[in-house]
Specification:
The chain is an all-alpha fold. 77% of the residues lie in helices and 0% in strands.
Length: 180
Amino acid sequence: MDGVEASVPEAIAGVGGEGRTAILEELYARHFGRAVAVATLLTGDRFLAEDLAQDCFIRAAARLGRTDRELRFEAYLQRAVVNACRSRFRRSAVERSYLARHRDVSAGGADHQEENADRDVMWAAIESLPYRQRAAIVLRYYEDLSEVQTGEVLRCSPRAVNALVSRALSTLRLQIQEEA
């Protein structure tokens, strides 16, 4: 990270309106796209991901003047996005459960186009993973974080991250083999 990232709390505390806006604009330009990408992978919905990332950015920006000097904005934003997606995942699990109980059995589902079948199978398999396994996969393979960094975001040990990733990959392999 460059100087702006390393000294954000000091820069925010000592700068007036226009300078603060410039710092926030730079942080937004640097981190918002990745936050949306992570949220998209975790939720499966680009529009929801943008909403969640925007809310998380606003919360992270509001804390800039009050955070510990050692806290990196990127790490705080990333953790906030993962936590927001987890909360959304929990709410949607309750919604899906309710809808499954009340769904009209006679209504047929739409068939997928043949050229998108592989992608649909993979996405369905990823969506079926428990949230922590899905988050571990996204953080390790999309965000390219180490096990230690992923553990910090998920608040677990590197060994637990390894176990989550291993179980997720095993589940994905089995589900994809069953579909093939």
